Amino acid sequence: MLVNRIFPIVLISLCSLCACKKTATNTYSADTFFKVYNAPIAKDLGSNATTNSSGAVTSDANGNIYILYYDALLANNGALYMLKTDKYGKMVFNKRYFKFYLYQQVYYYIANFICLDETLYLAGLDSTGKWTILKINCTDGQVAGQIPLAGIIPPGAKVSSFSIADMWQTKAGNLLINAYYTTPLGYTKPILSLLSPDGTIIWSKSDFPFPLFKSGDYEEGSCISELANGNFVFGTVGVRWTNTAVAYETKTVELNFYTLSSGGSLLSVDSLTAGGEVQYYYISGIYNKISPEILSFFLFPSPLGGYIIAANEYYGYTSQSGNYLYRLKVIKTDISFHVLDSAYVNPANSDVNISGIVQKADGSIMVSLEDQQLPVTNDLCYLYEIAPDASVKKVRQVGLSSQSTFISGMSQANDGHIVMGGLIQTNGIDTNNIFILKTDGNGNY
Questions:
Q1: Adjacent-strand bridge partners of 107
Q2: Coil, helix or strand for 39?
Q3: Which candidate among 17, 173, 206, 335 keeps its CA 20 to 30 Å from the CA of 195?
């Protein structure tokens, strides 16, 4: 049986880095904690192995916490696991399920694991290669049923290209499914579908008007924001390639904002230029002229009016390793998506990506950034807060000597606390351990 335990060296190291307070003078509530669980999973083994497919986290109305992870070791045939704790971090159970593959639209972040009432909903690929939603009982972790998703595939789509990117919970308790598919002409288009908890399709929309002209062009959903009036803003990233001469072609990236009614009717369309590049052809190959471009983003209404956009922006590469470089870009817009201000988070010698993000009750945004140190030593995670005016401040850094910390999910408990989950990976050892970090609204524990 796996036993919940705190590794002393981990706790001491993180306390020293993060000003952890666990003494008689602790001013934070007793249910804030950082705990590592003896649930080792395979590291970089097998065709489906990844250190990034672990840490999807959610919580129920009683404050219990659920975290997913995946054992990719071929000897174990690959399997999904779920660990449940109470609100104080005490492990309730750790269960192994059949093969079930998660999809991650953004670099580490997983948004397709949610809790409605006493049921957990998880979107992914089952062992037969079909997209489905697992329904899991919160109480005992048993699978209560499956919801097939083939019904939202539009006519003419290449079925093999259909994928679920994310799943969100609406205020009314329904499920919004963000998917995409490839047309016979070779370009990729988004699907947004609203389902009831029993799987009934309430509405499904796949005819978004962003123009795509040729194979390789694409538009994919990136985020959803539910407004106070019940409407939704669906954010997508659209990419087009245009031949402008024999020797080169240009890439144009746009952020698209579709406002839809609660019934799925398209009310308005707005867009924002988000970069691009030029691809040059020469006799022995191709090279790209580097320019910043946004690849994925999250959108939140600002209590000051307008919106705040938090985006993963590609801006170049490092010559020593050939790695692409990413940074956090924060944009403030008015209600019509005109840019009012912007800022960057770009630590030195770092390559950062959004791994988790939530908006707090006061309108500020808590975001975790994975930092792949360049040159690679050990990976860190930063917690930042984005204020309603788009100003950004660093809350704290999470990291360990000779170990890498991967935060792979973030959610907000019903008491307002922030819950994060992920991996502690010890360099040179082929296993990782799951951790859960639960903070107050300001990142303290």
A1: none
A2: strand
A3: 335
β-bridge mates for residue 221, sequence order: 236
* pLDDT, tens digit, 9 for 90 and up, residues 180-190: 999 888 899 99
Which strands sit side by side in the sheet containing 119-125, from one edge to the other? 113-116, 119-125, 131-137, 143-148
Cα–Cα distance for residue pair 138/135, rounded to 1 Å: 9
Neighbouring-strand partners of residue 83:
67, 94
Residues 177 and 165 sit within 8 Å (Cβ to Cβ) = no
Task: Return the DSSP state at 160.
Answer: G
Residue 208 near residue 189 (C-beta atoms within 8 A): yes
Confidence (pLDDT) at 137: 97
Specify the CATH superfamily of domain 8-439: YVTN repeat-like/Quinoprotein amine dehydrogenase (2.130.10.10)
- In order of 48, 77, 172, 255, the CA distances from 176 in angstroms are 27, 31, 11, 20
Residue 39 · residue 81 · CB < 8 Å: yes
* Two tokens, residue 207: 């005819």
* DSSP secondary structure, 97-116, as one string: -S--B---SSSS----EEEE
Eight-class DSSP state of 9: H
Q: Confidence band (pLDDT; 50, 70, 90) for 213?
A: confident
267's tokens: 């009310």
Task: Determine the Cα–Cα distance for residues 392 and 390; give it in Å rounded to an integer.
Answer: 6
The confidence band for 421, taking pLDDT boundaries of 50, 70 and 90, is confident
- Name residues whose C-beta falls within 8 Å of residue 11's C-beta, 6 or more positions apart in sequence: 20, 34
The span from the CA of 70 to the CA of 425, in Å, is: 14
Residue 413 confidence (pLDDT) above 70: yes
pLDDT tens digit sequence for 330-354? 999 999 999 999 999 887 767 788 8
Contact 182, 130 (CB under 8 A): no
**pTM given for the model:** 0.85
Q: Are 52 and 108 in contact (CB under 8 A)?
A: yes
Summarize pLDDT for 153-200 with one digit per residue, the tens. Answer: 888 887 778 888 888 999 999 999 999 999 888 899 999 999 999 999
Q: Are strands 266-282 and 248-260 parallel, antiparallel or unpaired?
A: antiparallel
The Cα–Cα gap between 385 and 105 comes to 22
Mean pLDDT of the chain, nearest integer:
79
Cβ proximity of 167 and 161 under 8 Å: no
Q: What percentage of the chain has pLDDT greater than the value 90?
A: 39
Q: Which two tokens stand for residue 233?
A: 């803003």
